[in-house]
Specification:
alpha/beta; FAD/NAD(P)-binding domain; 2 domains; five-stranded parallel beta sheet; 10 helices; 31% helix; 26% strand
């Protein structure tokens, strides 16, 4: 029986599980992932803001895998041995494969900053950051937190800061901690209109943002910029860009210059034909796109089809990533800023639109009927 290994429980691999649950196949399939659930990226800020319970924004990988006849091994990967067609896991387990698919996301981009691992809550993986937020919220309720710092001026950092600020102001009595955002640039990758709208929302919410300087050091109670400016803070959240997992390059797989798995237009490794990849961990050769969850979601059906085709020795389908994609950025309260192909807008209706999209996405992976 052919062996398919799904390395990671990301946004693309859940479609493989769903397909197998609906259409069982004579395969030996194993998913390797450290957690038996997937926290949906799009709804995490809404959960932090208090709009969703954790259960509403999490997908039960274990249940979905069980219905799909897929074994789950809860551990991390240490190395892939493509010459032997094996995955070496952190717990010492070695899993052989005929076809391997990698959907493990990315790790946080830290750069030269000191003290991040020791003193900051890092947003990748999201579950760890959520545990950190819950601890910070509890400390805040006890009056132990005067300021919270979010490092990262992109859409993710802005969205997180606004969500935290909203939750604190709507559930706790004054005085509330000051929430600030630090980064090299505000709203990188967004158009000017979206940056203006988000800037106005932050000013209205009382969330400060300080840009044009990198963070040099994070301490237990401070953040110091490369410019020498220091901010006192009781909690720091690291929400910077994506960096590649070192084990991808160390495994001998072809990568782009940043170390991400390099694939062709079929989502297939350019160096090993029986290895595929999608999501933030991979880059399509000659078609680079931002590290955004929407691309993993869009690639999922093609990845699924190509994994089964590779196992059966059939032709593969090309994936053509879109050049423009809809971004709906929540702003703490039930409002959102939308961005599409140079246009931007905001309003409560934009949040309702985002809410419908997110709930519809989650619902398709909830298989509540008895097995």
């Amino acid at each position: 029986m052919k062996r398919l290994v799904l390395l990671g429980g990301g946004h693309a691999h859940i479609e493989v599980l769903r397909t197998l649950a609906m259409n069982p196949a004579p395969l030996n399939v194993t998913m390797i992932t450290p957690r038996p659930w997937l926290t949906y990226t799009g709804m995490l800020p809404g959960h932090i803001a208090g709009h969703y319970t954790f259960g509403e924004c999490a997908i039960d990988l274990a249940s979905l895998a069980r219905r799909a006849g897929v074994d789950i091994l809860q551990t991390n990967v240490s190395l892939v041995s493509p010459g032997a067609d094996e995955v070496v896991c952190a717990d010492g387990t070695v899993i052989g494969y005929d076809v391997l698919s990698i959907d493990v996301g990315a790790r946080p981009l830290v750069g030269e900053a000191r003290g991040v691992a020791e003193h900051a809550y890092i947003m990748r993986p999201m579950e760890r950051a959520l545990e950190g937020w819950n601890a910070v919220y509890a400390r805040t309720a006890q009056g132990e937190v005067n300021s919270i710092t979010v490092v990262g001026g992109g859409a993710g950092g802005i969205e997180l800061a606004l969500a935290m600020n909203y939750r604190l102001h709507t559930t706790l009595e004054a005085p509330h901690p000051k929430v600030r955002v630090l980064g090299e640039s505000f709203g990188a990758g967004l158009n000017a209109g979206a940056r203006r709208l988000l800037g106005r929302r932050m000013k209205k919410a009382g969330v400060d943002f300080h840009m044009s300087s990198t963070v040099a050091e994070v301490g237990a109670d401070f953040v110091r910029l490369a410019s020498g400016i220091e901010f006192a803070t009781e909690a720091t959240f690291w929400v910077t860009g994506a960096a590649a997992h070192d084990w991808i390059r160390h495994s001998g797989l072809a990568t782009d210059t940043a170390g991400f798995l390099l694939t062709n237009g079929f989502l297939q490794s350019v160096s090993h034909a029986n290895i595929f990849g999608a999501g933030d961990c991979a880059t399509i050769q000659d078609q680079p796109r931002p590290k955004a969850g929407v691309f993993a979601v869009k690639a999922a059906p093609i990845l699924t089809a190509n994994l089964f085709a590779a196992l059966d020795g059939k032709p593969l389908q090309p994936f053509r990533p879109q050049r423009h994609y809809l971004a709906l950025i929540s702003t703490g309260e039930r409002r959102a800023v939308g961005v599409w192909n140079g246009f931007s807008w905001q309003g409560r209706w934009a949040w309702r639109w985002k809410d419908r999209i997110d709930r519809r996405f989650i619902e398709q992976y909830r298989m509540n009927k008895p097995a």
